[in-house]
Structures are given as structure tokens and as C-alpha cells.
Design brief:
alpha/beta; Rossmann fold; Helix Hairpins; 3 domains; 5-stranded parallel beta sheet; 12 strands; 17% strand; globular
């Protein structure tokens, strides 16, 4: 495993020392710079950093200018930058920071536990990304070798060649959905961290515990999802990644909703699971989670803020279970419903005004449902809401969980 390199940038030597002391027990390797120019010189020599902690207010070149220059280089653009600032969080400053390339802010004087927690999230993501990159390199080498051998074989092996192409297509779809799934809990994580760092001196102990609990639970779920992705990549040479198994429906729906509750809370939307405890389905757990999170995320996105609920229900239907994700949002026209699952480009289909979406995730949702032998349909009316209804196979009577 490569060392975890962190670049600390601050014109005050005491601040650099404080950050290093707080983080040193986690065995990170630190590079320190006392100016933006010095930081850029370090980055020209060493590009493999998992995180940059960057002071905003520095002479000659401030943090915003430094971050903007870092973002201009393709190899450096992917390094997360957390701004360290002694100033209040004004909307214009936050927007300027995110535009310059920041992923988060920490206020001085910083809370040691909060600093360690935020750094731990990004360094763990870096470790998982490194592991995924090595797995991908191995997979690419395997695929290249397989493709070369297939080209050298006779027409009798064409069927095997087509199977490999189908597997690669399935892999691309699967990775796209996993990437979508990870953005949801990361949004929740960053929102909770922002609330803590912005209002730490105003929050009551029970409020701090609430946000800290969200950060802890969401971080654990991110790691679980990343571990599942690594396991999937490890065994992707098998003929299929489709692995249906008996699932307790209410429990699995709750696990998906938990990842999205903080997103919903930001708009004062309640997520309700009204599924009977006794219902079970036969489904691939990763695909089912992607189906549900995609539909609920859309429901949150297209529901105006203000105390409305997004509800998930289910009922048996001729050997299948029909699930319904219902919102009271902006709805959609009949013309949009008719085109929603066949759109192949990036033209916006869903929503009006600021709330628009491409509908591309729904194409994958339809594919995953079809792999289970299910169907999906939409009931919607403008300004009254939308219901996505889809079916999944019910658990076989002789299956033991």
C-alpha cells in the first residue's frame, strides 16, 4: 500500500505544527509549505497526495489563487482540498472556495477530533481508490489478453467473444451506478460536517451528537459500499455479476433510506418506509439498492422543500412484489413519461426550472428491473407528484434466509 501523503499549507509555522501534531498518530506522511508558491513547487515534484489542507489567508498568493492553479493541472485536479479559515462562512466565500476546487472548509481554531474525522474520510477513500485502480489494471490486463486470444481463435469461439463483450458492458453499467450511489452518502457526510464546523460554538451537545452520529454511520456505510465494489471487481471474471438471493424487504429498504435521510432533511422532507415486515423478495442486493436509491434520490430532488414526505410501499402481486416510491413533488407531463425510459442522450427530461435531470439513471434502473423479470411504470401529474411502481420476484416459499 502506498504511503498516505498530506500537504499542509499555512504561512504560520505554529499552525502547521498544530495540524501535524493532531494528525501524526494516524501514520500519515506530511509535506509542509508556508506559501502558495512553495506548495506549487512541492506539487511539481510529488503528485501522489491524498489530501491538501490549505490556509485561505496567506500573503502574496492566497488559498483561492493557489487552489485555482492546482486545479489547472490534470494530474493534480483530483486531489481533494480542504480550506482552513479563521473567517465566518459567508455564502460568497464558500461559493468562491468550491469554484476554486475545495471540497470542504474547516474553521480556525479547529476541533482536533473533527479534523481527524474529516481527514480520515478522505484518506480512506484514497486507499480504496488505490486498491480499485490496481484491481482495474489487473482487469484490463486480463481483458486485453482474453481479447487477443479470442481474435486468434476460430469462428467456433465467437460466442465466447460476445459473452466477454457483454460482461464488459455490464461492468461499465455497474460501476456507473455504484458511483451514483456513493455520491449520495458523501453529500450527507459533507452536509453534516459543514453543520458541525460552521455552528460548533452554537450547537447544543445533543445536536453535536446528532451530526456526529450521521458522520459515523454514513462513513461506515461508504466503507461497506466500497468493500462490496472491491469484492465485485475481484470476481468479475465470472460469467455473471447477477446474484439474486432472498432479501427481507423492509430491512433492505431501510438500509437504502438511511443513506439518503440527511439529503432529505436538508429540504425538510421525511422518508417513510411503510413496507410490511413479512415481505421478502429474490433480488441481487447491489442492484436492488441502486434501483431504490436512484428512485428515492429523484423523488427528493423533484420535491420542493417544506415538510412533504417520500413514501415507499409494497404489496404482493401474482408471484411478484410491487414496490411504489411516491412523492408529492413537481410531477411530470404525459409526454415526458412516455420518453423517460428510452432517452439515449443528455437532453434534460425531468423537472422544470432549477430542478432538472437527464433520466440516464432511470435507463439503468429499467435494465436492472428487467434482469429480475420485473416491470416499471410511472403515475404522475404536474404539480401533484409522481409514483414509480416496479415489480420484483417474491421469495420462493421453500427458501430459507
Amino acid at each position: 500500500m502506498n504511503p498516505i501523503n498530506i500537504l499542509l499549507v499555512d504561512d504560520n509555522e505554529n499552525n502547521l505544527l498544530s495540524m501535524e501534531v493532531v494528525l501524526e498518530k494516524d501514520n500519515y506522511t506530511f509535506y509542509k509549505a508556508k506559501s502558495g508558491r512553495e506548495a506549487l513547487r512541492i506539487l511539481l515534484k510529488e503528485e501522489d497526495f491524498s489530501l491538501i489542507l490549505l490556509d485561505v489567508k496567506m500573503p502574496t498568493m492566497d488559498g483561492y489563487e493557489t487552489a485555482a492553479l492546482i486545479s489547472e493541472r490534470d494530474k493534480l485536479r483530483q486531489i481533494p482540498i480542504i480550506f482552513i479559515t479563521a473567517h465566518d462562512y459567508e455564502e460568497a466565500a464558500i461559493f468562491k472556495g468550491y469554484k476554486a476546487g475545495a471540497v470542504d472548509f474547516i474553521r480556525k481554531p479547529f476541533n482536533p477530533e473533527m479534523l481527524r474525522s474529516k481527514v480520515a474520510v478522505f484518506t480512506e477513500l484514497y486507499r480504496k481508490n488505490q486498491l480499485l485502480r490496481r484491481q482495474e489494471e489487473k482487469l484490463q490486463a486480463i481483458n486485453q489478453g482474453l481479447e487477443q486470444r479470442v481474435l486468434e481463435r476460430t469462428v467456433e469461439l465467437e460466442a465466447a467473444n460476445q459473452e466477454l463483450k457483454a460482461l464488459n458492458l455490464s461492468k461499465d453499467k455497474f460501476l456507473s451506478v455504484i458511483s451514483h450511489d456513493l455520491r449520495n452518502p458523501l453529500t450527507s457526510l459533507l452536509a453534516s460536517a459543514d453543520n458541525l464546523s460552521r455552528d460548533a460554538d452554537k450547537l447544543k451537545p445533543e445536536q453535536i451528537d446528532f451530526f456526529a452520529g450521521i458522520i459515523k454511520r454514513t462513513s461506515r456505510k461508504i466503507l461497506d459500499q466500497l468493500n462490496e465494489l472491491v469484492d465485485w471487481a475481484k470476481y468479475q471474471r465470472e460469467k455473471t455479476n447477477f446474484n439474486p438471493q432472498p432479501l427481507p424487504l423492509r430491512k433492505n429498504v431501510n438500509e437504502s433510506l438511511d443513506l439518503l435521510r440527511e439529503n432529505a432533511r436538508q429540504k425538510n422532507i421525511v422518508l417513510e418506509n411503510k413496507i410490511d415486515q413479512d415481505l421478502h423478495i429474490e433480488a441481487d442486493v447491489l442492484m436492488f439498492r441502486s434501483i431504490l436509491q436512484n428512485l428515492v434520490t429523484n423523488a427528493i430532488k423533484f420535491t420542493p422543500a417544506g415538510g412533504k414526505a417520500v413514501t415507499v410501499t409494497a404489496q404482493p402481486n401474482e408471484g411478484m412484489i410491487e414496490l411504489c416510491v411516491c412523492d408529492k413533488g413537481i410531477g411530470m407531463s404525459a409526454a415526458t413519461r412516455d420518453r423517460l425510459f428510452v432517452q439515449e442522450n443528455t437532453a434534460s427530461l425531468m423537472g422544470t426550472g432549477k430542478e432538472k435531470g437527464t433520466g440516464l439513471g432511470l435507463i439503468l434502473v429499467k435494465d436492472f428491473i428487467a434482469m429480475h423479470g420485473g416491470t416499471i411504470r410511472i403515475e404522475s401529474e404536474l404539480d401533484k407528484g409522481t409514483s414509480f411502481l416496479f415489480t420484483m420476484p417474491a421469495k420462493k416459499a421453500d427458501t430459507i434466509i
